[in-house]
Amino acid sequence: MLVKSWEQIPFAIGVNNLRENKAITDLPFSISCGTQQGLEHFENSFGNQDAISMVIENDFIVGIVCDGCTSSNINSVNDFTSNQVGANILSKKTSSVIRSLISASGVKSIPENLFNIQNVLLSYLNNLIDDLGESIDEKELLINNFFTTTIIAFAVDKDDYCIFNLGDGIAISNAIKKELKFSSGKYLTSYLENGRPSELGFNLIDTGKTETIDSLFISSDGFDNERLLTNKYFIDFLNKRYIGKKGGFIDGLPEFRKYFLTPYINEKEIFDQWPKDDATYILIRRITNAKIRQPEGKNEPRIESATDIGLKEFLQTLSAEPQIITKEETVSEKPAEIQVSSISLENPIKKAKPFARRISLIEAKKERAQAIKKKNNSEINSPTNKRISKSRKKNHKKR
């Protein structure tokens, strides 16, 4: 039975270099990823040739997606290549090179150092191929069968972000797709023939300030589907902020399946088999949590909540020492202006809070009862009532 959709083969996490104790950052972003073997690969019995590498530090994040080339440019007896090897090796090496660069001079230094990044990777590949291949033919086979892969990457620190590529792929910033510049069929290994080429293969896709970013999405060309990229479920998923307290790596696949994958494949207009090619992505989303503000003159942050602020002020009034006001302090040189509030112009009971209104009604009822009792007592003690009372007593004795 042929697999017809992602519904039967959902995504999985596949990071080749990340450990749980290295998955937390102080940056306000969650990082998630997913990878899925293409339907054509599955039906023809060869594996997923994409790779993911990440670097998550306290003050910066790096994400790399590599897509190994399936076909070979040389006369090979194989139906497909083993370029998933190069995809994993180069994604890991690229993340290490970028980590070193950011640690030294920040994300802002990446655009001016793309050529240096390229040369470091080429030097590494050249040494590796020289070590594995004994002849020119063997080296050519290694290049085409093991190390031919695309590279798409992003880096973010507290100030800046950057996205760049060498080869095809997808890049989306704040749910807006970015145009990629690349030459079809040209990979990093294409520059090995010249040793240290003068031509820059990497392209800068986008750069800017981190404060403007809500989400960044990079992927292999398995996501290069116009129907998908313009689908409302996909766009809504990218715009959906992650609710949490700490930045770092998360398992975002439950949300990915719930808010995008399941409703998308259930749409009646979806008829094509997709993804035909391997599909791999990394997504960072800004975290939404309680707002923290720094009160003036105080070091401790406080949650900006009406309940919290009201309670704290109330406790401060209880702990404060009572103020003694003398007669001299009550007499001021200039009479204080009388502040008339809008509540004094109308019925105060209507404007008061429910609890205060209830107390006002009770007090008013007590006052009325006391007034009636006082009135009755005054009537009983009047001279007329006293004479009537004496007459009634005499008549009672006669009986």
Structural overview:
The chain has helices at 39-43, 84-105, 114-132, 136-146, 226-229, 232-239, 253-265, 306-319, 327-330, 348-351, 354-380, 383-398; strands at residues 24-25, 29-36, 50-56, 60-68, 149-157, 160-166, 170-173, 176-177, 203-209, 215-219, 242-243, 247-249, 279-288, 292-293, 302-303. The chain has 399 residues and is α+β, with helices and mostly antiparallel strands. The protein folds into two domains: 20-293, PPM-type phosphatase domain (Phosphatase 2c, domain 1), CATH 3.60.40; 347-398. The longest helix is centred in the C-terminal third of the chain and has 27 residues, at 354-380. The radius of gyration is 38 Å and the shape is elongated.
